[in-house]
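Protocol step 4 of 5: obtain the predicted structure for the target chain.
Materials: sequence only (see below). No template structures provided, no constraints applied. The aim of this step is simply to have a reference model before the mutagenesis design in step 5. Sequence pasted as it appears in the construct record:
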Amino acid sequence: MDPKLLQSVLPFLMIGIVFALRFRNMNKPRPFNSSRLWMMPALLAAAVAFFLVTFPPSLVGWLIIGFALIIGALAGIKRGQWMHLERDPQTGKMLIRQSPAALIFLLGILIARRLLAYELGGSPGADASGHFPPEALLVTDGLMAFALAMVLLMRWTLWQRSKAVPPHPEVFS
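Step 4 output (structure tokens):
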């Protein structure tokens, strides 16, 4: 098999496998702990900050980052609104279920990201001298900003919504 074709098809295959497993377990509620919602955005923010300090963007890069932050924030809020929060009637613990719309939305984002990378010539990496092509860094900056804003605002939306879920009746007994 042609290595270039394998490089193009393999990510889609992996995305398909991961999402097939996620769709299979979609109706199964998982425990939800709102006190841990800050961890993933903090780790992601540290990684993005490190990357931006290591490879400072140009003025165009900052504009792309700003645009990506806005789009990512809107996507994160919408995804957070689509998640199902509930309280277990027996234990009173918070549960979360993935919604089909949220999963399809995330799948669309991943496919669009992959197609964008393909349109820009595959996954452009460093050349022999260790320098990245400018368009690769612009795309990377934008995608990292989008991901950070989406994760942050999705988690913030879930935290806000979790405060509105009524407590278990036995808590006040």
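Step 4 remarks: Strands lie at 30-31, 84-87, 94-97. The mean pLDDT is 82.
Proceed to step 5.
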